[in-house]
Amino acid sequence: MAFEGLSEKLSAAFKKLRGKGRLSEADVKEAMREIRLALLEADVSYKVVKQFIAQVTERAVGADVLEALSPAQMIIKIVNQELTELMGGQSAKLTISPKPPTVVMLVGLQGAGKTTNGAKLAGFMQKQNGKRPLLAACDIYRPAAIKQLEVVGEQLGIPVFQMGQTNPVDIAKAAVAHAIQHGNDMVFLDTAGRLHVDEELMAELQNIKEAVNPTEILLVVDAMIGQDAVNAAKAFDDALDIDGVMLTKLDGDARGGAALSIKAVTGKPIKFVGMGEKLDQIEVFHPERMASRILGMGDMLSLIEKAEQNFDRQKALEFQEKLRKNKFTLTDFYEQMTQLKNMGSLSDLAGMLPGVKASDLDGATMDDKLLSRMEAIILSMTPYERENPNVLNSSRKRRIAAGAGVQVVDINRLLKQFEMLQAMTKQFAGGKMPRNLRKLMGKKGGIPGMGGGGMPGLPF
Q1: Which of 71, 245, 315, 410 is the most buried (most CB within 10 A)?
Q2: What is the helix (H) or strand (E) element at residue 274, kind and residue range?
Q3: Looking at 378-446, which runs of residues are DSSP E strands?
Q4: CB 229 within 8 A of CB 222
């Protein structure tokens, strides 16, 4: 999970402050030492850490904080505000040209994920902003780069412009001309990368920039390489004067140093982040929301947005009507699981809830594979069996188990959980709190056999 280590260390520092009640200046300085160590361990630039701690300390030792009724909360608020400012203050949007097409030039080192994440961004602009993007294959050096772009373009339903192994500058110019001719209002130039910054690469990128005058130069960097990502950002900015950064693989970076350092070092904002391997797993970077996640305050706005993006209003109305009529079936159960899966990793979703830290999930069954197994079981049933699970006898269960690649005991477990959920929906259908809800709940507020708090049938 992103920022996992940093979040836990900051939470520990704040817990000590809360335990003291009234604070002295020495208490604040001790907390700042711990915060400084946490940031350095998260691979944040030393200069950035030094400046950040100085700013927070200056505000935190003021009379308004030390004399406050809840000084620990005041310090958390200050750290939250300063983290937000460190990452840019507010979200920065992609610049859209008043005269189409908008040309977005994607640059970065080899392996950063330019091709995949450039396609993700094109898909995002198509889905969320109603754009008609064109992907242009300007990387003529990396084997299969053009083929890769064509594959992801096809998966997203976005056209790809390519001219084979010719001059990248000519390809870029021809792609823009093609977009004008065919009504594409955005062009994403997938340029070549290198294993490290060199003069030849920069010269080629400068020539492309000069030829097409891009609306936006977006640097794609891998969050998991830490300070090397910041150094790469500075090198590309010096050579090309980039407009913003797309940070990839942020979901796999437990430290988060790159996200916290890039804006401060380059002065250029992080505009988008890649949060997974799927082609829809891209988010606008919101500094204030990311600061809240880091401090364990959750990110309910992003969670709501994810739900809305994967929310089928018509199906929801039909589902509501079925609940009202007490006709909740395994088919409905499967559709609800599908919508949940489309929202992303269960552990990442849980991390957006206020007060939930990575360590809190250690004993929980946050197993995305469990959803896939349950899905396989339901899909191995006939439509009649899904609508009438009471007909599932031993022979039917053995057939389903063989088709889903599971054991009969797994099918029995799923059916038991489904029956419990049906029992709850029967009582909720009338708008009343079920009397036996407490009996269904385990010691920690969860469903028996589900490993803690959660809904029956769902692995959390």
Answers
A1: 245
A2: strand 270-274
A3: none
A4: yes
